[in-house]
Amino acid sequence: MNSSAPIKVGVLGARGRMGSEAVRAVEEAVDTELAAALNREDPLSGLVHAGVQVAVELTHPDSALANVEFCVDHGIHVVVGTSGLGTEELDAIRARLAERPGVGVLVAPNFAIGAVLSMRFAELAARFFESAEIVELHHPKKADAPSGTAARTAQVIGRARADAELDPMPDATTKEFDGARGADVDGVPVHSVRMAGLVAHQEVLFGTEGETLTIRHDSYDRRSFMPGVLLGVREIGSRPGLTVGLDPLLGL
Ligand SMILES: NC(=O)C1=CN([C@@H]2O[C@H](COP(=O)(O)OP(=O)(O)OC[C@H]3O[C@@H](n4cnc5c(N)ncnc54)[C@H](OP(=O)(O)O)[C@@H]3O)[C@@H](O)[C@H]2O)C=CC1
Ligand SMILES: O=C(O)C1=N[C@H](C(=O)O)C[C@H](O)C1
Description:
- The chain has helices at residues 17-28, 45-49, 61-73, 87-98, 113-125, 148-163, 226-235, and strands at 7-12, 32-38, 54-57, 77-80, 104-107, 131-138, 183-185, 188-194, 200-208, 211-219, 241-244.
- The chain is elongated, with a radius of gyration of 19 Å.
- It has seven helices and eleven strands.
- The protein has 252 residues and is of the alpha/beta class.
- The strands form two sheets. The chain has a six-stranded parallel beta sheet, with helices on both faces.
- The structure holds NADPH dihydro-nicotinamide-adenine-dinucleotide phosphate and the ligand O=C(O)C1=N[C@H](C(=O)O)C[C@H](O)C1.
- Ligand LZUJQKHR binds at residues 83, 109-110, 138, 142, 147-149, 200.
- It is found in: Cytoplasm.
- Homotetramer.
- Catalyzes the conversion of 4-hydroxy-tetrahydrodipicolinate (HTPA) to tetrahydrodipicolinate.
- Pathway: Amino-acid biosynthesis; L-lysine biosynthesis via DAP pathway; (S)-tetrahydrodipicolinate from L-aspartate: step 4/4.
């Protein structure tokens, strides 16, 4: 990409809660230009016609993979905020990228700096505690549960526990209502709350003999995600292949 010209950005899901914020952030930044703002009914070819260099994918778990594949096939870098992409989708993106070695895709479970740090703190803490559980709390219009952030947090905690060869968490439950102990994500119980008035919140709870540790992050406003979106837009052109999480872009 020409480093002096503004980066031509296309936003997918442009009239959505996140998409409309992303449109505003891209328009406000001096080094990015909003070249395309696509909604559900708009053909993806609009990205190509507008000369988009980086697409920001903020639609729905059901449409994200096809959108990313279209972009990769057309040499467009992608910053993916849409959550609910699992191992299969990430493998499919990797396979597609193998055909286009110069293209970069960033899949960011959470763009907020505090959320990225809280995942890293949770990863650090995991090996020191017998028990770990996650409570994520979101607005009721969210399609996926658990949240992408909670799934990612559980994965890193699960991996850290396995690396430290910790015993299974203590839990004497033998009789329960369906769902009472949450979803099991890599051995970590994850509880999802959907509630009017909320935006995006998460508590990671750790416990061991005589003490607990709680790591909490709150996004009260979707503007909290925009510095991370713009960082991804600026960086992804020089990071070919698949990057998961903002961590390497933040030097973490
Ligand atoms: N990584 C992060 O930091 C964050 C990620 N997110 C994720 O971003 C995604 C969007 O969230 P949010 O903005 O709240 O959701 P919204 O429902 O507000 O916006 C989604 C937009 O995508 C459009 N859309 C839905 N389905 C399709 C489709 N099949 N093809 C094309 N466009 C489609 C919708 O169109 P229409 O208006 O017609 O329904 C809507 O405009 C979610 O997956 C969410 O989890 C959210 C916040 C932060
Ligand atoms: O849908 C949302 O709102 C959010 N989705 C992402 C997720 O699933 O983790 C990020 C943040 O929690 C907001």
